[in-house]
Each structure stands twice: as C-alpha cells, then as structure tokens.
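Before any further analysis, we paired sequence with structure tokens, yielding the entry below:
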Amino acid sequence: MQTGSFTTIDHNEARRLLASGEVTVLDVRTPGEYAQLGHIPNAWLIPVDFAVSAPAVLPDNQQPVLVYCEHGVRSVAAARLLVAAGVSAVLNLAGGLAGWSGPREFGDGVLRGPAPWLIDNADLLRRGGKVLDVACGRGRHALLMASAGFEVRAIDRNPQAIEFLKITARRLNLHVDAAIVDLETEPPPDLAGTFDAILVFNYLHRPLMPALRDAVAPGGRIFYETFTARQAERGHPKNPDFLLRDGELAEVMAPLAIVRSREGEFDGRFLASAVAER
C-alpha cells in the first residue's frame, strides 16, 4: 500500500526482503524496547526522537530502508521524515514488531545517528544557544541541534558533505549555516565567533585546540569525543596524529574545566570523552 511517498509493506514482504539482504532496517523504538522486546537482526537503532539524524548516517547504497516500531505509529512519523529529507526508497512495516513472527534477537544495540556521549550529556547544553559543529561530516549532529531549536553553524573540509547537509536541512525546513572550512591550515582558521556549545566527534587536530577553546563563550562548553591510542588495535585509525594518548584529553582541554569525562572501551571502540566548560 502506497502512503504519500513511502510504502507500507506486510510482514511476508518484509521477511522476503530480509532474506535477500537487500534492505537497511531501521528500528525507531527506544533502546529499552530494542533490547528487551527484541529486534530484527542487524537493525539499526535510531529512536524516533533522533530520526532527523538518520539521513546523514544511512548507507549511501541505494538500498531501500525498512522502518519499524512496536505498533506501526512511530515508524510512520520516521518514514515521513526520511522521505522529506530525500531518502529515495522508504518502507514502513505494517503493524510494527508486536505481531512479528520473523527472526528476532535480544540485547543492547549501538545508538546510530547522534553520538551517545552527546545525548547522555544533553542536559549540559544551553537551551537555544549557538552551536558550532566541527568536522561535521554529513551533519548528523547539526541536523539534530537545528531541529531542537539551536542556532547552528557546521563546518567541514569536505564539499560533498557540506552540500548534502545544506540540501537536507533545506528539505527539512531547518536552518543550518553550513560552510566548507579547512580545519588544518596554518594558522588555524577563523571559527567565526563564539559559541555556547562546540561539538567535536571522531576528529583530532591538536593545533586546532587553542582556536576551539577560544571560541567557547563564557559559560559555554565543548562536547568532545574521539579515539584513543588503543583503537589502533582494532585497525582504524592507526595514525597517532589522530589518536589521543591516555589522559591527554584533559590536557588539551585546559584551562577549560572538565565537567564530565570518561575514557575506555564503549560500544566496541576505545574512546576518550569530555564536556569542558569555560
């Protein structure tokens, strides 16, 4: 059955697609539902509240995206958003997983879309403030912050990623000031003002750190997370220029005050994370 620009399919058709391997599956329930009620094997976990980030992280392989929730209500909202964002083939599972008789697994899932460190510390964001998303990629965080009412500037050196972010934000009626900026120039680039929150995820360029600290407004915070040296054991990245030494994140944040931090293995990756405040 065709509804708008997405297609609602029955469970038989969904099982056929799963068997073929020709679909990306998106679970838009809560992490608790995903773990405790079970999920379709290999389903991506992006709760509906964060679905605006999904277009930036879904694989660019032209496969259809099958969206489901528990009863088929939240999945409709997520499917509509994906279609509006320009995802070309969106499928909705009729009736949700409550009546599902196909394969099912149990256990925790890895949150896709926004970084869990940002979500877990969202209470430290200044409401309605100015946000700078550094090395933003295709905009998973920029889109989420803009949808939540923040004034967002997003910068990355990749012109294709910035163009994707601009187009997606426009389709979703979100305002994001997205710009191509080479973050590794000498001297470091002008970051165009001061910000209540600066987001840096999966990126490290040590010479840029003073400029990032200087761009934090009084009372503002940097939300930072990237790989530590032990991640090289997992294969990527290996270059020490892109890996923090043990305990180094607090050093590069100084003189900002560390509000929250962690370091270790999380969701199969070795990471150092911090929220630092001016």
The chain has two domains: 2-99, 116-277. The longest helix spans residues 159-171. The chain has a mean pLDDT of 95. The first strand starts at residue 2 and ends at 3.
